[in-house]
Amino acid sequence: MSTSASASASTKSIIIPRVKAVDAKESTDGNPVLIKGWVRTIRKQKTLAFVEVNDGSNMNGIQCVLSFDDIDEETKKELARVTTGCSVVVEGPLVKSQGGKQTVEVAATKLRVVGECPGDAYPLAKKRHSLEYLRTLAHLRPRTNTIAAVARVRSQLAGSIHAFFQKTGFVYVQTPLITASDCEGAGELFRVTTLDIDNASSLPLVKTEDGKDTTDIVDSSQDFFGKPAYLTVSGQLGGETYASAMGDIYTFGPTFRAENSQTTRHLAEFHMVEPEMAFADLDSAMENAEQMLKFVVKHVLDNCQEDLTFFGKFYDKGLIARLEKLVAQPFVRISYRDAIKYLQEEIAKDPSKWQFPEVEFGTDLSTEHERWLAETKFDSAVFVYNYPKSIKAFYMRDNDEDGGETVNAMDLLVPGVGELVGGSQREERLDTLLDKMKEQDLDPDDYWWYLDLRRFGSVPHSGYGLGFERLVTYVCGMENIREAIAFPRYPGHAEF
Ligand code: 4AD
């Protein structure tokens, strides 16, 4: 039962407790409670009205039954204003439901409309809308079953990620969003500028494509107070500094990638969970990722049954079985070389079936390859480790046992999504790191503080990044990552 309480509209001295739909239990004392939410449906019969109120705490909200003999005149008038989408406060005791759909309902004695909702203008009809249509209504879509259920599961996942790291002694560190470094070196950066709106006339005029003068485009002198700065692509480098002092840390925050991709797996703004562990090798990072994922998926299986059952019914029939399997079975571990071998053998059977049939050592695996490995070859979560140096970031540790061709890096692939986690052991040797930076044309002066970590008490360390929206997509059985975040950012979409 919620601790918040409100006075009844008419008897101000009596405090009537508010109850959320998810907590509603049959009353033992017959006292009234308040239900506050948005009307999903209203049905009227000769002597009764049924109002389904959803407050976001569960899938179906709670049914409020109003008997015309038991309600006051004001409530009768208010009932005439009730439409789908309006907000209401309903008062009455919680009783055993007569209907089969729910166990408890409100025997309502009072109802007040808080905010009207003109039915003809309300864009959410009772029927099921397509997820594409709902994306155009990002401000209203949390009122639908699907998006509200995703939001509840997402919230539980975030809470359990923190719970996992807190209980295993990791320190939560917030790394900056504005930074000068491109951690992944992939050049997918959003640049930060200081645009002085009040003095826009002082900015240089630039011609737009259709020949008009504008100050909207700024030159580099307007960078972050005179220095180039970007939105972070990863909190890893900052995380390494704290791991190099505190042992085990994690970050969990927004990251940004200016990739012009319209896929079902990519966003321009997404959240990453990034643990970093000192005195740890690649195996430790894989072990930690496996433990963490099992912990959070089990948490959702234990705490979000109603929402998972809904996803299983409407979106992905095998969802719950797959999540249970993820928790129960050890993850598969294969080297990148073996992954290439398996793919080559399979592609050779019928290359025409593949969008990307060319696969050899050095190929950056595509989602098609990753999903085949996780879904068809192993039907399991799969770690692929020891990737070619040529396709990975400068900070990854050279693999001493592989003639310098590979680095101690891993990706975790899961059915339905492909890559969920990317991680590595970091290069902790100063000289080797400097060589690697030279090879990738990076200026050591830009990373002086990062190099200091290798000068002053360097230590083998490892970490990984989990794409949080990919995890939400996976756990909710969604097809598209755009359902996994409240306001998805992708090319052309930053309106809300
Ligand atoms: O493999 P990535 O690029 O790794 C890093 O950024 C490392 N610095 C992390 C670390 O070691 N601390 O990204 C990690 C994960 C990917 O596996 C994927 O799940 C997710 O981040 N990701 C994206 N998710 C949504 N949209 C995008 N554009 C993403 N790019 C990466």
UniProtKB/TrEMBL annotation:
Q: Which GO terms describe its cellular component?
A: mitochondrion
Q: Where is the Aminoacyl-transfer RNA synthetases class-II family profile domain?
A: 152-488
Q: Which EC number applies?
A: 6.1.1.22
Which terms are listed as keywords in the entry? Aminoacyl-tRNA synthetase, ATP-binding, Ligase, Nucleotide-binding, Protein biosynthesis
Question: Which Pfam families does the UniProt record give?
Answer: tRNA-synt_2 (PF00152), tRNA_anti-codon (PF01336)
InterPro entries in the record = Aa-tRNA-synt_II, aa-tRNA-synth_II, aa-tRNA-synth_II/BPL/LPL, Asn-tRNA-ligase, Asp/Asn-tRNA-synth_IIb, NA-bd_OB-fold, NA-bd_OB_tRNA
Keyword field contains Protein biosynthesis: yes
Entry's Gene3D superfamilies?
A: Bira Bifunctional Protein, Domain 2, Nucleic acid-binding proteins
Keyword Membrane carried by entry: no
MF annotations from Gene Ontology: asparagine-tRNA ligase activity; ATP binding; nucleic acid binding
CDD domains reported for this sequence: AsxRS_core, EcAsnRS_like_N
Which PROSITE patterns does the UniProt entry name for this protein?
A: AA_TRNA_LIGASE_II
A GO BP term here is:
asparaginyl-tRNA aminoacylation
Output the superkingdom of the source species. Eukaryota
Family statement drawn from the similarity comment of this UniProt entry: Belongs to the class-II aminoacyl-tRNA synthetase family.
- Please report the name of this protein according to its UniProt entry: asparagine--tRNA ligase
